[in-house]
Amino acid sequence: MDDRYFSPTSAPREIARRLYQTIADLPLICPHGHVNPRLFADESYAWGTPVDLLIIPDHYVFRMLHSQGITLEQLGIPRKDGGAVETDHRKIWQTVCDHWYLFRGTPTGIWIGSELRDVFGIDEKMSGGSAQAIYDTIDEKLRQPDFSPRRLFERFNIEALATTDAATDPLDQHRAIRESGWPGRVIPTFRPDAVVNLDTEGWRTSMDRLSEVSGVAVGSYRALIHALEGRRAFFKSMGATATDHAALTAYTERLSDHEAEAIFTRALKNQASEEDARRFTGHLLIEMARMSSEDGLVMQLHIGSLRNHNAAVFAAFGRDMGADIPIAGEFTRSLKPLLDAFGAHPDLTIILFTLDETTYSRELAPLAGHYPALKVGPPWWFFDSLYGMRRYFEAVMETAGLYNTAGFNDDTRAFPSIPARHDLWRRASADWLAELVTRGVIDEEDASSMALDMAYRLAKQAYRL
């Protein structure tokens, strides 16, 4: 067993190695992510090429390349207008490998390296010279039955995997998984952003779709609430244990029914202002907390991403194209209306995520260290890295305590990277705990129990899995 990411000092390294050995092979709990359930709905699902698998779906990869002047068209990313992009996947792969040095020391470099080694059995580093040989090896293996999504799910030892699904999704893929008889646990997560955030592009179309799938004519605010409650019940019947909400800020506000109805009416007429959208989202977050306190779905709140910052990329390629940028956050005042109403509710769990690391020790840890309903989610997006995890441990744990956190989630679209992401967390956790042991903060018996919690039990308990 190697000592990757452990301390270079012998005493903590030995302890970290022992701790890691106890958790390395535990099942993976994947309570939040963006893997497409279609992978598992059809036993004959085909991955396509190595580029289809590892490059085109992964904004972590093409974001870095874009920053160095390589266009998304050169990487085969489909344009919204159907315009020309590179279609020779060997050429795309060569371009990526020629520039792989850009990922030295980055989480993406760590994850892809682990995937090559542990999933595909490739020890050679990615480079211009090795590009085509690595492509051939991956391409050959992707055609083998043992590399089907279902087989890899079993090989990765995934106990549960949650996808993220729009409130208007009929969940046909999840139904197909259930009806196939395959025992893998793949469950949906209810994400209503497109219908509750009035400033989301295509909001009116999403509202029409909500009316269609819910059987409720959503022509009023009250009808919207009724439709959302019905959709949540449907998701729960399909195995969902959580909801997911993304907002620019953590702002919450309790509106009167009259105010909410007036804003919703303006939105239906395309007359809602930015302030209307901000207040309506803030109100709906409180309503979602109310619903979660009643139906038991865990509420995830992801705050602080200014989406689609690059207007030209958004116009040409759409959402989730690597152009989302963190902003400064504030939680203490913003969440107070929600917490006044539900912060101590015994049946509510809210897991908070932020892209502003400065809020960990200043706000999130103190809030979670007081309100029973709150837990601090793991480092997210730009910070699910070796040093991001270390900063998180040091900023959060002393104030919130380990047991007011929610363990780890991989939060990825890149299915083959899931084991690598969990392994990094487990190694980082073992290394941090080992240092606490060597400093006499905890003993090794407690460290071993904490390692198990961080790797497995906390996420399972927080997400009610």
What's the quick description here?
With 465 residues, the protein is of the alpha/beta class.
Descriptive key words:
49% helix, alpha/beta, uronate isomerase, domain 2, chain A, 465 residues, TIM Barrel, three-stranded parallel β-sheet, 11 strands, 20 helices
Would you write up a description of this structure?
By secondary structure, this protein is an alpha/beta fold. It folds into two domains: 10-46 and 148-462, TIM Barrel (Alpha-Beta Barrel), CATH 3.20.20.140; 47-147, uronate isomerase, domain 2, chain A. The chain has helices at residues 10-23, 38-41, 50-54, 59-67, 89-98, 107-119, 131-142, 149-155, 172-180, 193-196, 203-214, 221-237, 257-268, 274-295, 311-317, 336-342, 358-368, 386-400, 418-438, 444-462, and strands spanning 28-30, 158-162, 165-166, 186-187, 190-191, 242-247, 298-303, 305-306, 325-326, 350-354, 374-376. A four-stranded parallel sheet has the order 6-7-10-11, with helices on one face. The chain has a three-stranded parallel sheet with strand order 1-2-4. Strand 10, helix 17 (358-368) and strand 11 form a beta-alpha-beta unit. Helix 11 crosses helix 12 (221-237) and helix 19 (418-438) packs antiparallel against helix 20. The relative contact order is 0.14.
- Give the strand tally: 11
Q: What is the CATH third-level topology name of the largest domain? A: TIM Barrel
Mean pLDDT: 96
**Biggest sheet: strand arrangement:** 6-7-10-11
The helix content, as a percent range, equals: 40-55%
- Structural class, from secondary structure content? alpha/beta
What's the overall geometry? Answer: globular
Measure the end-to-end span.
Answer: 30 Å
Number of helices: 20
